[in-house]
Amino acid sequence: MSDAEKKLMELRDAIIDGDSEKAKEITEELVRDGIDPLRIIKEVVGPASKIVGEKFESAEIFLPDLIMAGEALKAVVDVVSSSIPEGQSAKKGKILIATVKGDLHDIGKNIVSSLLAASGFEVYDLGIDVDAQEIIQKAEEVQADVIGLSALLTTTLEQQREVINLLKELGLRDKYIVVIGGAPVTKEWCEEIGADGWSTDAIEAVKLIEELMEKKKKR
Amino acid sequence: MTIEITELEERAHTGPFMALKDFQKKMYLRARELVKEYDINRDPNDIVPTDISITKDIYEAALQLLQDVGFICVETSRTVQVEKDEILRGLRKVPTEVQFGSNNEIVRIKRRELFSQSPIVKWLGPWGAQISSPEMFLLIHQSYAKENIDALQCGVVSKIDGKTVRNKCVSEIISATLGAKLLREAVKRVGRPDMPISFDCVGGSDVAFPAIFTPDGARPTDHVVLFNVMSEMSFSLMDLNKIALAKAFNESYPFLGFLQNPYGGFGGGSETLAIISTAEAIFTLAISGIWGVYTGVTTISPIPKHEDLLWFEICNKLTLKKHTDAIICGSPVSFSEPSTETLVHELVYRTIPLTLTSDALLAAQAACGKPYDYVTGMEARIVSEVTDAVLGMGIKIEDANELCKEILKRYLKDKAPEKGKRFYECYDTEKIEPSKEYLSIYEKLKREYQDIGIEWI
Fold first, then answer.
1. Residues B329-347: pLDDT tens digits?
2. Is B156 within 8 Å of chain A by CB?
3. Chain B: residue nearest A64 by CA?
4. Chain B hits for A103, Cβ within 8 Å
5. pTM for the full model?
6. Strands B159-160 and B163-164
7. Quick check: B340 and B422 in contact, CB under 8 A?
8. What's the rounded Cα separation, in Å, for the pair B453 and B321?
9. Is the confidence metric ipTM above 0.90 for this complex?
10. Do B166 and A158 touch (CB under 8 A)?
């Protein structure tokens, strides 16, 4: 195994362990050593995020570990992005995610947001209790590809519809992929409010967003 | 001095600021360190912990976590710090008995000895379940009130005239008024008008909450509010508002702490969650006016790890019963939907050890209360009968461990929640009786359970 390969392995382990500082340090070294940034993405970021996802799914690691791995991954992507030639991107897409107005539950959203970050998406997490207007304003500002709306209460579920209705009113509906999530969300609800996809499971949510992004790129 | 709610409000506005995510990370990392420091390890042979010496370490670790990390207010993002002495003083003042109901429906929830075979209070209902209309709400609660229960828990009217009830809006206020009235109507219709009711879910937000106190709604002898630890050592000012309002309406014992930690969330896995959930309970019980704690259980995984969920929940109850004088409530709930075999297995599996480690059972909820109408009184029947069987047979904690292991192996290991039926699909809504299909599923499984040693009464 060459020195570069050893370092790439070390980097992968640092991401899985959620060690942001170490991950950043190794990435900087690799870039300084002339390793192609896209090789780092292909050989480290992709496999590491897959392993982290699998460990989370099998309950070997938990949400905080996932968040720390996501932070380490972001540190790597940030270093790599500054070295990638214009026109190429290290990130899979931009996701804006929020728990809708009136709902203070953030755990489900945080899981999805962390998994997305760990999978190489650029995630803008607006937090909890966010109204429709603010969500759309921010999506426009960051030029998001996907809007993710989380709700745990049926009394706040209606706010997911309000975001979609406001997007329609503003003529912006087709610009964004809108996905919804939360314990009470169902296929019927997704169809009723005209969202592009739904999930009550974080791992599935990431797969869904990846699929919808692929479809969007082909359009 | 114990911690009053006014003091909690003060600290929630003046404590050190910390971003919620940073707080959650700090809490988890410290809990993980404490697992190592106190050498807290789950015996892989146990689903129900049988060696209660572990509770001493969990209790000490929880006290330490509380001092090191504190609590966080979700609205202000300020941490509430507490001294060990404040906590211990608060714990010494918790009531060991409370009373609800009136006339011939007096219900006393008393502290039972650990593993006691004495009767346990069955305060059962579709806790927090989302119900599609006021009409359905009445029928579902009647179906619970008809069963062998001591007091009624409640769900939520989530739609009125087909329109969704919105949080902190007019519709939620109407839903709360209507819900409270219908709960009283439900107990009247089954001939038990004085039965105590928990109105803790009908007025969800602090805006809608006062609406439950109409003349036909909550009585001072009912229960009206939970202090809701939202997730992982956080709380909301909204709950403090509700408690102050409940006191203003002369409620006797408004203040029950409710803790629900998702397995695999910021609290991590079994061992860290055992510490975190105990720290939450200790903090909650130390607040002046709390009469008990009610631990729920949930998971972020689509396939619940039943063995881990049960272990940490029972650990939590054993620790609190062993090291405090508080009233501890358990929550038999299922992830599966009504009229399914998996639902029956989940309820039996959870009710057995909860009966031995709790002072009251609250809720008998299916499908985690998801919308709409996935709850029926039959779940209360199952919980009630299993409880009677456990007490009738004199089951010991070691037996409970063996039974749960067998149920897990035979029926629940790696099993996803089962799709079932809504109330009106598995109940005769005229007679308010379970369908033949639902009854036959239950009867068949009762026979199977006799083979593994559970004798129904």
1. 999 999 999 999 999 999 9
2. yes
3. B266
4. 167
5. 0.86
6. antiparallel
7. no
8. 27
9. no
10. yes
The three-class DSSP label of residue A17 is coil
pLDDT digits (tens, 9 = 90+) for B191-202: 999 999 999 888
Tell if the CB–CB gap between B370 and A183 is shorter than 8 Å: yes
The position carrying tokens 């900087």 is: A28
Radius of gyration (C-alpha) of chain A in whole angstroms: 18
pLDDT exceeds cutoff 90 at A38: no
Chain B partners within 8 Å of A68 (Cβ): 25
CB pairs under 8 A between A and B: 91
Q: What is the structure's pLDDT at A87?
A: 58
Q: What is the mean pLDDT of residues A133-143?
A: 95
Q: Strand ranges (DSSP E) for chain A?
A: 94-99, 122-125, 146-150, 177-181, 197-199
pLDDT in tens, A174-196: 999 999 998 778 888 899 999 99
Q: From CA A165, how far away is CA A116, in angstroms rounded?
A: 25
**Which residues in chain B have Cβ-Cβ distances shorter than 8 Å to A127?**
20
The CA-based angle A204-B25-B60, given to 5 degrees, is 120
Q: Considering CB atoms only, which of B20, B130, B232 is closest to A184? A: B130
- State the Cα–Cα distance between residues A127 and A150, nearest whole angstrom: 10
Q: Which amino acid would we find at residue A173?
A: R
Residue A207 host element (H or E): helix A202-218
Instruction: Please give the C-alpha separations between residue A169 and each of A162, A164, A173, B456, in angstroms, as whole numbers.
Output: 10, 9, 8, 60
Interface touch B268/A62, C-beta < 8 Å: yes
- The secondary structure of chain B, three-state, reads CCECHHHHHHHHHHCCECCHHHHHHHHHHHHHHHHHHCCCCCCCCCCCCCCCCHHHHHHHHHHHHHHHHCEEECCCCEEECCCHHHHHHHHHCCCCEEEECCHHHCEEEECCCCCCCCCCEEEECCCCCEECCHHHHHHHHHHHHCCCCCEECCCEECEECCEECCCCCHHHHHHHHHHHHHHHHHHHHCCCCCCCEECCCCCCCCCCHHHHCCCCCCCCCCECEEEEECCCCEECHHHHHHHHHHHHCCCCCCEEEEEEEEECCCCCCHHHHHHHHHHHHHHHHHECCCCEEEEEEEECCCCCCHHHHHHHHHHHHHHHHHHCCCEEEECCECCCCCCCHHHHHHHHHHHHHHHHHCCEEECCECHHHCCCCCCCHHHHHHHHHHHHHHHHHCCCHHHHHHHHHHHHHHHHCCCCCCCCCCHHHHEECCCCEECHHHHHHHHHHHHHHHHCCCCCC
Grade residue A96 by pLDDT with cuts at 50, 70 and 90. very high
Q: What is the pLDDT of residues B96-155, one digit of tens each?
A: 999 999 999 999 999 999 999 999 999 999 998 999 999 999 999 999 999 999 999 999
CA angle centred on B50, ends B349 and B264, rounded to 5°: 60
pLDDT at A42: 79
How far apart CA B326 and CA B186 sit, in angstroms, is 31
The domain at B97-451 falls in which architecture?
A: Alpha-Beta Barrel (3.20)
Distance in angstroms (rounded) separating the CA atoms of residues B20 and A127: 10
Residue A153 with chain B: CB contacts under 8 Å: 167, 204
Per the CB < 8 A criterion, the answer to whether A206 and A172 are in contact is no
Task: Give the start-to-end residue ranges of the domains of chain B.
Answer: 97-451
Closest partner residue to A67 (CB to CB) among B25, B130, B371 is B25
Looking at CA atoms only, how far is residue B158 from chain A in angstroms?
7
Helix (H) / strand (E) element for A9: namely: helix A3-16
